[in-house]
Design brief:
- The structure holds two protein chains of two kinds.
- Chain A has 18 helices and no strands.
- By secondary structure, chain A is mainly alpha-helical.
- Chain A starts with 8 loop residues before the first helix and ends in a 6-residue tail after the last helix.
- By secondary structure, chain B is α/β, with parallel strands linked by helices.
- The two termini of chain B are 34 Å apart.
- A six-stranded parallel beta sheet of chain B has the order 3-2-1-4-5-6, with helices on both faces. A six-stranded parallel beta sheet of chain B has the order 9-8-7-10-11-12, sandwiched between helices.
- Helices cover 47% and strands 12% of the residues of chain B.
- Classes of the chains: A mainly alpha, B alpha/beta.
- At the A-B interface, helix 2, helix 3, helix 4, helix 14 and helix 15 of A face helix 5, helix 6, helix 8, helix 9 and helix 10 of B.
Chain lengths: 464, 499
């Protein structure tokens, strides 16, 4: 039988004090901290004197500080970032849906679009979409009203695309439908960015998903009962609904612009350039897989792996953040954190890469069954491009795009350099050489972006 | 006289007792010119007050605004390491304020060169902080604490970068620095004192340190926050008392805390807040149904939860009773306000409790009830209580801070965080019309006799003249009058030697 010891004087004292005081006494850094807690619970100097025989609350606090055995405080409530899961996979997959939707629209409308249409729609849509997301986030961060910014930006995106489309038409033909399709894609992508900025993912999904379902059915030719008109109608309705929803949040000051700082403009410029380069690389792959004429009925198969892997990209970005959070909590020095962060990055990149390769293998097998093929160089370029996007996504989540921008600029310069070299030495730049040059340029860009982003990834300050 | 009035999260950006006092004091001392240095969340925040004509300038300092700091060179990082080590040692080792002030002085020099924020944003700062967090002196008998991690160090450095931002600003030029609270405003006063020798007057309405201690309660904040910020705030507040040429607490109660924190009693001169009696006409008749009124900002320190819980007990005994809450929700307190609304719903009080927001006339708001309640867990010398008394309504208030000094025998005091005590007092007073009205009348008399704005302004006028005598007061604001006032200047010299 254990012996029950009589309560000590301190225990007696604590038992007569309000609940929670014992914990505060054990964790306090000085007596005044205890005095504050005592007073906030009704133990004034008068009570300290009458009930506890101390001259005042400070004397009582000093006594408690001296007598209560200190206990190191536990960690406060920790909000853990969870690893990505099915939700992120689906969310990412949804970002691929517009690609499928517009591919079906092009097919259903029997459009024969010149290469510049893809180049224009993807670059302007991507660039304007990225810029509004970045600037909008900065404005929202300081509770500034977006006002008419979204409307003006959407209008500017449409006008710029229309003007460039007109120029493209003059240069390489295409007709009004090519210009119109470029404008529609751009307006749709920017509208989606506006909805995502406002956290209205559901508003984006609602019109998109039924239209995408019909688009898939149409593209697979499995559901013969889906009339072409219904597919086109559903896609048009989805586009209109998305634009309306995006502009639905406009305040009555829809014409007024918020006050921009230089920093906003710098951030906007950087993300605009990033979007531009992403669009450029993607459209290059689409154009290069579309045959020598550059005309293609739908988005070619070679462009699908990255689209399909967007879900994995989103999932791995979430998982990367969760890995980083754990690294921050477990590391007791910045060097240790740097090593863990680097491992987390390569783990996420590897998982994404394996998924992308698997999708590419699936595409190749599917094509083989159809006695078709896709150029290996193009698939390799596609894999490099997906990885570059992932690195860009990680860097932009750390608000450090500079490294990726530099790498992308080097990639563009490499492609242009190779083009000039082949033109001057061989006098031609055929499709095969163009694909190889594309692979070299994107691979160079990927290698540089991985190397250049390491400093950012390893710095703990990138995740504040 | 050119006075720099230093505020933190109050005038002219937000409402509340301290802002009321600032406005009254500036308007009342119209012979002086005021430069308001307002520490606030962000510089673009709108003003809640229109500064009067004798405010020559308002300089908002956005503590949370993004600032692009130039990179620090390797040699600058070396200098930073030495200064930061001294600073961390002064925070973690419970030394006298002189060491902390000397360490701040070193950081001030770096901040004035423009790269302190950048240096705080380096791996060196993280690792040095982690070293100090691990090696910090323990209390007697304390066992090994959980090892601090990089996430916690980042959290501390991020907050510290914002808190130390006043050190980076050009030192304020004035004949006198008057901070209306202890805390971060002291950094502005220190800059002026180090650069120009400007004398410093410290007014304390609330108790900055006490409120910070209540804010950084273990379990509510992260381990690192609790391990660092209570110590940092404690050192900063003590530094404020040390460098102040005069300390003007808003109550005798505040003085006890100041003395307990090491302030020199010789330099403490309590000055009570006051109200303008003209703004409080004779009380209107009481309403028909038993009504309780509360007026203030919705804030955890006001303990609105206890107020609502106590009212639930009142309503149980008096089903027709009403509780009217007047006052806005300051930015950052939205979650707490939501919890208050949820508590009202949970206790099934939605039909009898009304949140009525800000009001233009506080006298009219107080007049709508039989009783005025104040359930704060921390107060200085609250305007809410003075105004309620001046309105001729009986006050039931928690016995915190200077509330007892304000109420005297002309109201009812109850312990804080005790809904039953509040409810019992309310029910007793609602049942006794004669006593309730007599206490209301006595309160009105007490305020009109003891706590008027004129008395408060006269006391400050006198204090300004003591700190900066008119014959010594130069015309040029950049040449403060403290050159004739040597005691503090000589002590500052000691701090510098101590480093």
């Amino acid at each position: 039988m254990s012996e029950i010891s009589p309560p000590t004087e301190t225990q007696w004292l604590l038992a007569r004090l309000p609940e929670g005081i014992a914990d505060i006494c054990a964790a306090a850094s000085e007596p005044l901290e205890i005095a504050a807690a005592l007073e906030a619970r009704g133990i004034s100097s008068r009570v300290a004197s009458e009930r506890f025989g101390e001259p005042d609350v400070f004397a009582l606090a000093r006594r408690l500080f001296a007598e209560v055995r200190p206990v190191p405080t536990g960690r406060g409530p920790v909000r853990r970032q969870r690893f990505g899961g099915p939700g992120e996979l689906l969310r990412g997959a949804m970002f691929a849906a517009p690609g499928v939707m517009f591919a079906a629209a092009i097919g259903a409308l029997h459009l024969h679009l010149p290469g510049w249409t893809y180049l224009l729609a993807l670059t302007t849509g991507w660039a304007f979409g990225q810029a509004i997301a970045a600037v909008g986030s900065a404005l929202a961060g300081r509770s500034a009203q977006l006002g008419g910014f979204t409307l003006w930006w959407l209008t500017a995106a449409a006008l710029v695309t229309a003007v460039l489309g007109y120029a493209g038409d003059r240069f390489d033909d295409g007709g009004w439908h090519a210009i119109a399709m470029s404008v529609v894609v751009t307006v749709y992508v920017v509208s989606c960015s506006i909805l995502l900025l406002a956290g209205r993912l559901r508003a984006m999904a609602l019109p998109l998903l039924p239209a995408t379902a019909l688009a898939v059915a149409f593209l697979l030719h499995r559901l013969a009962f889906v009339p072409r008109g219904v597919t086109v109608g559903a896609i048009a309705a989805a586009v209109v609904a998305t634009v309306v929803l995006a502009l639905g949040g406009l305040s009555h000051h829809w014409w007024s612009l918020p006050r921009f700082t230089r920093r906003d403009l710098a951030i906007g410029g950087r993300y605009f350039a990033h979007g531009l380069l992403c669009g450029l690389a993607t459209s290059l792959i689409i154009i290069l897989s579309g045959g020598p004429s550059g005309h293609t009925p739908v988005i070619p198969v070679a462009a699908y792996p990255v689209l399909v892997s967007l879900g994995v990209m989103e999932w791995q970005l979430y998982s990367f953040r969760a890995r980083i959070e754990r690294a921050l909590e477990r590391a007791s020095s910045t060097a240790q954190f740097g090593r863990r962060a680097s491992l987390a990055f390569f783990a996420s990149l590897s998982i994404y890469l394996v998924s992308l390769v698997a999708v590419c293998a699936g595409v190749v097998l599917w094509l083989l069954r159809r006695h078709d093929t896709v150029p290996t160089t193009l698939l390799a370029a596609e894999i490099c491009l997906g990885c570059t996007f992932f690195v860009g996504l990680v860097a932009s989540s750390c608000a450090r795009l500079d490294a990726v921008l530099t790498a992308a600029a080097v990639g563009v310069a490499t492609y242009v350099g190779l083009f000039i070299y082949w033109q001057s030495t061989e006098g031609a730049f055929d499709q095969g050489v163009a694909r190889l040059s594309c692979l070299v340029a994107i691979a160079t860009s990927l290698a540089i972006s991985i190397a250049a982003s390491q400093k950012t990834i390893r710095s703990a300050f990138s995740y504040q | 006289m050119a006075i720099a009035m230093i505020t933190e999260a109050t005038y002219p950006h937000s409402q509340g007792g301290v802002s009321v006092w600032c406005d009254q004091t500036i308007r009342g001392l119209s012979e002086h010119r005021f430069h308001v240095v307002a520490l606030c969340a962000n510089e673009a925040a709108p003003f809640a007050w229109e500064p009067p004509g004798n405010v020559t300038q308002v300089t908002p300092i956005g503590l949370w605004d993004a600032v692009r700091a130039p990179k620090a060179s390797p040699s600058e990082i070396l200098r930073f390491r030495s200064a930061f080590a001294a600073f961390l040692a002064a925070v973690f080792e419970n030394g006298d304020p002189a060491g902390f002030i000397a360490a701040l002085r070193e950081l001030f020099d770096l901040a004035q060169e423009g790269w302190l924020a950048a240096a705080l944003h380096t791996a060196t700062a993280v690792d040095d902080l982690l070293g100090h967090l691990s090696d910090a002196p323990k209390r007697d008998g304390e066992t090994e604490a959980p090892r601090a991690n990089v996430a916690e160090a980042l959290e501390i450095l991020s907050l510290l970068t914002h808190f130390l931002r006043p050190l980076s600003l050009p030192p304020v030029e004035a004949e006198l620095c008057h901070s209306v609270s202890n805390g971060l405003g002291v950094l502005v006063a220190l800059g002026a004192k180090w650069t120009y020798g400007t004398p410093f007057l410290l007014t304390e309405h609330g108790l900055y340190l006490r409120e910070r201690f209540l804010e950084y309660t273990p379990g509510k904040t992260s381990l690192a926050t609790h391990a660092f910020f209570p110590k940092f705030m404690s050192r900063l507040v003590r530094a404020g008392y040390e460098i102040a040429d005069s300390i003007a607490p808003g109550s005798l109660y505040n003085r006890t805390w100041e003395m307990a924190s090491g302030a020199d009693v010789e330099r403490i001169r309590p000055i009570y807040n006051g109200i303008d009696p003209e703004e409080f006409p004779a009380p209107p008749p009481e309403p028909e149904s038993p009504t309780m009124v509360w007026l203030g900002r919705i804030d955890p320190l006001k303990d609105v939860h206890t107020l609502i819980r106590s009212f639930a007990a009142v309503v149980a005994a008096l089903p027709g009773a009403r509780l009217r809450l007047f006052g806005g929700v300051p930015a950052g307190n939205e979650e707490y306000a939501q919890l208050c609304h949820e508590l009202v719903t949970e206790l099934d009080l939605s039909s009898s409790v009304t949140f009525e927001g800000r009001v233009d006339s506080v006298a009219r708001a107080y007049g709508t009830g039989h009783l005025v309640l104040n359930t704060s867990i921390s107060e200085g010398f609250p305007y809410a209580v003075l105004e309620a008394m001046a309105s001729g309504r009986c006050v039931v208030a928690t016995d915190v801070g200077g509330v007892e000094e304000a109420i005297g025998n002309a109201g009812v005091l109850v312990p804080p965080r005790d809904p039953k005590a509040v409810a019992d007092a309310c029910l007793s007073l609602l049942a006794d019309d004669e006593r309730r009205r007599a206490l209301g009348a006595a309160g009105r008399e007490r305020v009109r006799g003891l706590f008027t704005v004129e008395q408060s302004n006269d006391a400050y006028r006198e204090l300004y003249e003591q700190l900066c005598p008119p014959e010594a007061s130069p015309r040029d604001a950049a040449t403060p009058c403290s050159s004739a006032h040597t005691p503090i200047a000589s002590r500052i010299g000691e701090y510098e030697c101590a480093s």
